[in-house]
Amino acid sequence: MSRLLDDVRTALRVRHYSRRTEKAYVAWVRRFVLFCEKRHPRDCSERDIRRFLEHLSGERHVSASTQNQARSALLFLYHDVLRDTRDLSGEVVRAKRGRRVPNILTPDEVTQVIGAVQERMRLVVSLLYGGGLRLNEALTLRIKDVDLRRRVLVIRSGKGDNDRRTVLPEGLLEPLGLQIQYARLLHQRDCARGAGYLQLPEALGTKYPSALRDWRWAWLFPAGRTFRDRATRRIMRYHVHETTVQR
């Protein structure tokens, strides 16, 4: 199974799918293979795919969006990885999603929630609400993506691998300025002790080697610990992990 999952990862990365999608699709392919008693997907029929999706909805009681994600993962597996010529689009039915009325917090309730968050993560949560950011978009902000003078945030490689700009709430200008100072000072200290290397998008580090330790590319919300990269042996610092905020 490991070779099959590696082929799925390679196909996703060649097409520049996000890491989240890669993780989800690989997990669904693994679950499908186990459901089919470890038979290779080439030996599985359309009926096996239908049974798996029906198992998810009927026995696992997953939501329609989760079932559709599993469907997309299997269609990707057969069409783009295995190059299967069978037309599965008609056999593998997409689940119908119903409309629901969203639960929306009042401004007072939002204030209470933000006030209850630990001070270290309060700025991140405030950005989610005030700037309309997704959690991963906020945590992957770099210092250069914050323009305090224009009150603008640049979100790079967001959902669908799209960039966009969003406004900065006036109440966050001062704490963001302090956070930038903290992140820059921490990065300079890392560089002074031989660390301070950064993970740059795609091949940017090869094209601009000086950017590997440029403070402007440092994470706005750096993690508390450094680590040594297994491939390059460089000491690096990642951004705060999502679970830190979620907890």
Overview of this protein structure:
The protein has 247 residues and is mainly α. It contains ten helices and five strands, in the order αααααααβββααββα. It has helices at 2-14, 19-35, 46-58, 64-81, 107-116, 119-131, 135-139, 173-192, 204-207, 242-246, and strands at 146-147, 152-155, 164-167, 222-228, 235-239. The strands form two sheets. The protein has a three-stranded antiparallel β-sheet, with no helix packed on it. A hairpin with a 6-residue loop joins β4 and β5. α2 packs across α4. The chain is globular. The protein starts with a helix and ends with a helix. The model has no long low-confidence stretch (mean pLDDT 89).
Summarize it:
This protein has 247 residues and is mostly helical.
Topology summary:
Elements: H1 2-14, H2 19-35, H3 46-58, H4 64-81, H5 107-116, H6 119-131, H7 135-139, E1 146-147, E2 152-155, E3 164-167, H8 173-192, H9 204-207, E4 222-228, E5 235-239, H10 242-246
Descriptive terms for the model:
single chain; 247 residues; mainly alpha; 3-stranded antiparallel beta sheet; two-stranded antiparallel ribbon; 10 helices; 5 strands; 48% helix; 9% strand; globular
